Amino acid sequence: MADLYSELNVARGASEADIKKAYRKLAKELHPDKNKDNPNATERFSKVTRAYDILTDKDKRAQYDRGEIDEEGNPRMPFGFGGGGGGPRPGGAGGGPFRGPNGEPFEFTGGGEAADISDLFEGLFGGGRRGGGGPFSGFGRRSAPPQKGANDAYRLEVAFEDAARLDDQRVTLSSGKTLDIKLPPGVEEGTRIRLVGQGQPGPAGNGDALVTISIKPHRFYRREGDNIRLELPVAIDEAVLGGKVRVPTVDGPVMLSIPKGSSSGKVLRLKGKGFTGKGGARGDQLVTLMVETPDDPELARFLEGWSGRGKSNPRAGLGV
Asked: Cα dihedral sign for 160, 30, 12, 58?
């Protein structure tokens, strides 16, 4: 089985941010919704999700790096047997080899497949696995602890406005069950929500459902951190004379005051109309004015005879 870091295409010492970034990229490429005719992509998606699950859990990652758990998150064989030879070798206090009944030395070495050491002790000391009377009868083959069922992975598309307002979302599980889930503060593209116990059944209980959020792009809003950007067309008379205009926000339209003499590119702020951040506070909506100049003969004649024409140079700051 591939190393968890290799599954995500990151180095072993990668930061949590690098791991999240790599997972988001792979999740978009491999998600089952985009690869319905490619079962290999679905299998890889599950492996990538499992790798992400372990490596973003600080305790599990530390256990994995120390070799205490495997790529499935299951405990490895105790005492260092079957591993890379890093554990202590059984023997006397001085580290010497075990002795058989006739004094012959033997010792354990690392590498290879895991050994069933109960068979070895049985042959040397006559201790039967069934009788349980041998001095090493406690070393019999251990059954693996019961495991939870597999996790299920889902991708949920969320409307831009819903994500900004943290509106509840409904997800349909593979079982046909529907659940309403709450979006967390700071939700963004690739945010993952864990639904405990909503995965596949197993001997030790159900696995979890892992829901990856994808925020749909909007036709005129653009996200910038916790703020929302909007380019607002305004008529030339609204820009010159000022006044109140109706502006869309994710919470519904509001009235915005345009200062007299506004130019294209001027930015006005609507407080608390952005995304909800991780701390619970909402960002703002930043409105960039875009002055529209009409093709109007009357306006053209006015400007040709305007007394202020040519007296100002709006490009003076550019040195021209």
From this structure: positive
Nearest to 2 by CA among 58, 57, 64: 64
The string of DSSP codes covering 142-160 is PPPPP-PPPPEEEEEEE-H
At 133 the pLDDT is: 47
All structural domains of the chain, each given as residue ranges with its CATH number in brackets, are 4-73+149-215 (1.10.287.110), 221-305 (2.60.260.20)
Q: How far apart are CA 286 and CA 273, in angstroms?
A: 9
Going by C-alpha positions, the residue among 294, 275, 297, 278 that lies closest to residue 286 is 275
In this prediction, residue 309 carries a pLDDT of: 67
Nearest to 23 by CA among 2, 4, 1, 38: 4
For tokens 């497949």, the residue is 113
In 6-36, which positions are buried (b, 16+ CB within 10 angstroms) versus exposed (e)?
ebbebeeebeeeebbebbbebbeebbbeeee
Q: Please, are residues 274 and 283 in contact by the beta-carbon 8 Å criterion? A: yes
Please give the average per-residue pLDDT across 125-135, as a whole number. Answer: 46
**What sign for the dihedral angle of Cα 232, 234, 240, 244?**
negative
Regarding predicted confidence, which is higher, 133 or 61?
Answer: 61
- Is the Cβ–Cβ distance between 226 and 271 less than 8 Å? no
For 219-277, write each residue's pLDDT tens digit.
999 999 999 999 999 999 999 999 999 999 999 999 999 999 999 999 999 999 999 99
Distance (Å, rounded) from C-alpha 72 to C-alpha 95? 34
Backbone torsions φ then ψ of 51, nearest 5 degrees: -60, -45
On the 0-12 / 13-18 / 19+ scale of CB atoms within 10 A, 59 is exposed
- pLDDT at 41 exceeding the cut of 50: yes
